[in-house]
Amino acid sequence: MKLVLEDGSELSGRSFGAETSVAGEVVFNTGMTGYVETLTDPSYRGQILVLTYPLVGNYGVPADRPEGSLARPFESSRIQVQGLVVQHYVDAHSHHAGVRSLAAWMKAADLPLLSGIDTRLLTQKLREKGTMRGWLISGSVEEGKRSAREVDMQDEVFRSVAPAAPTRIGDGRPHILLVDVGCKDNICRSLLDRGAMVTRAPYHADLVSLAREADGIMLGNGPGDPKNLTELIDKTRAMLALDKPLMGVCLGNQVLALAAGGNTAKLPYGHRSVNQPVQDLWTRRCYITSQNHGYAVQDDSLPDNWEPWFVNLNDGTNEGIRHRYKPFFSVQFHPEASPGPRDSAYLFDDFLRVVGGTRS
Is the confidence at residue 17, as pLDDT, over 80? Predict the structure, then answer.
């Protein structure tokens, strides 16, 4: 099997997953652990994922969770990536919860797993040239490119990760509307663990009506370019008019910025790791965060009464915004973590305190 990049590079290795050809944007993640959480993160939908840590597969994969369950460590009901590229795959796994190998899991999902690639060299290329289109090919390059499975990143990517209809989970208070465009399950778990009741609704639902019934609104993460979500941007603008507390996470940060009148831009190679340092511009405290995004809000595009909240200490890009006097705020990183770290989980507590303080 080969990884072929759009610049003409060909990297050959050994196949451990399904013998099938796929296409997608090639991106890298620098986390040392957490491949189960990462592979099931809907933000990776349509992408070929490169893991930079050299040993992958050591602890296997746990049993499938029951239908409709939010059980950890899975972040959705399926593997979301198009394929996986690693340097050294370990098939002989060892973990008390592991019931199958990573390769067996990938094969069952009909997805390729390529091992034996110099992922350090590949990551350097992606950092220098930016993420690029690629193919994991079984067989000849010409035939593989013709037959490769691919996700339509303009439309299908969003509809393939969002739920079909709104679902109410839990019976606590406050009541939070969670807008799902490919939301990680741990966002929902983080709200439920703090006693909230959650209505998890797809972005194409009647969100404004659902928001009127809720005490607060959370815009979740998801894949792709936020500017393709014009329907959600318009609905978010309408939900802002309700003046209810609203928090965004990752893609939700970008959608909130666009709804407010700001702009977003594609990053050269994105932020995909569990060790991204960010700083709160208000308190000056720093946090290590989990991130997975290829687009960012442009600070200088924010309209009056909106301001940057967090900044990435590696490259200076935006990591969050907030309204100066209304209860609207969002972060580009993942406070729910999964796999980690949990430094910024306090933001869920802060959000629910704001909701509680404004609930009638």
Answer: yes
